[in-house]
Amino acid sequence: MSMSMPPEEGDVHTYERTFTTEDVRQFGEVSGDQQTIHTEPDEDGRLVVQGLLTATLPTKIGGDLSYIARTMEFNFHQPVYTENAIRCEWTNESVEERDDRYTVTSSVVCTNEDDETVMEASINGLIWKE
Q1: Measured between alpha carbons, how far is 11 from 66 in angstroms, rounded to an integer?
Q2: What structural domains does the chain harbor?
Q3: Per-residue pLDDT averaged across 74-88, rounded?
């Protein structure tokens, strides 16, 4: 993050992604989460996306911000299905400036195409000053 744009309370960042069947299969191979809901399509041909794969959405935003997470707490409200766009909205709730870094507390809400909340998170971390 550039010093000309330090993080501020109230900043909002968004990212949207549609998970594919191949994403779910590859994550299952890496994570070992091979439950039937992740490997056998439902009557509509969809797989349920692993919760931790869904949790990569705020991880993507954090990476863009050079945010180093210290704690992450997730609440999963509804299943996420393949081929359904998920929108992730990250909000900086508090920012504390220190000599060498910013300590940031953020909230995250992920919604599906029907604007239903599928996941919420609270993340505490830091952004180093350059």
Answers
A1: 15
A2: 12-19+48-128 (3.10.129.10)
A3: 98
